[in-house]
Design a protein that fits this description.
The protein is an alpha/beta fold and 251 residues long. It has one domain (8-245): Aldolase class I (TIM Barrel, Alpha-Beta Barrel), CATH 3.20.20.70. It is built from 8 helices and 8 strands; from the N terminus they run E-H-E-H-E-H-E-H-E-H-E-H-E-H-E-H. Strands 1-2-3-4-5-6-7-8 form an 8-stranded parallel barrel, surrounded by 7 helices. Strand 6, helix 6 and strand 7 form a beta-alpha-beta unit.
Amino acid sequence: MIETRVGLQAALNGDRTKAAHPATPVSVEELARDAAACVAAGARAIHLHPRDPEGRETLDAGVVDDVVTKVREACGVPVGVTTSAEIEPDPERRLDLVSAWRAPDYTSVNLSEPGAAELMETLVGIGVGIEAGVWTVEDAERLAASGLGGQVTRILVEPGELQLEDGEDKTADAVGLVEDIHRALDGLGFAVPRLQHGDGEVTWVLLTDAVRRGLDTRVGLEDTLHGPSGERVPGNEALVRAARELGACAD
């Protein structure tokens, strides 16, 4: 059975390239080494975006299953992937690709993207866990309307910078938004575990807020290239260690 509480998840790469940060893991060998180092540093789950031989993000089952299997063998903890529409914008094509998966322990599904409910139904059918990506209060309502809220592995409360208004205090706005999301999830009766995180300049304030709330959280080069004090980090292992120092852990 997939562990539903993970404490701290390491998000290894996302859509980043080595041009953004040379330590971004792209190949399966790099992902496996990085995942093992992050687990040794305190992460208890992995999130990654598999790449094809040319380094492009892909949802192809042959690549996804191979990458997940090898990374999990290397690190010994659950490994999840993504169903982002930025990788495959066509909902029907995306559904066909994902339906062939067998190896991932779980995958994120963004409720704001077209076809999210159908995608979750397919994932339930093939036995791949679901991380329901809730960016806004409206996403919480979409999850409730799907009727699948009780079958997800966890809810990702993840208001990134794109969900926030430009202003003088984006970090305060981020905390306010997650408060609204949690209130909406509580009101809708969701009892499944939640993992809260942010990206860009709101990464660390939302991680710290997650620790305060007693929630699981995540960190990695997908979300930020900088540590809590704004310093550029050498890689994912350093981000995991910084998160542990702030109280994020698997206990």
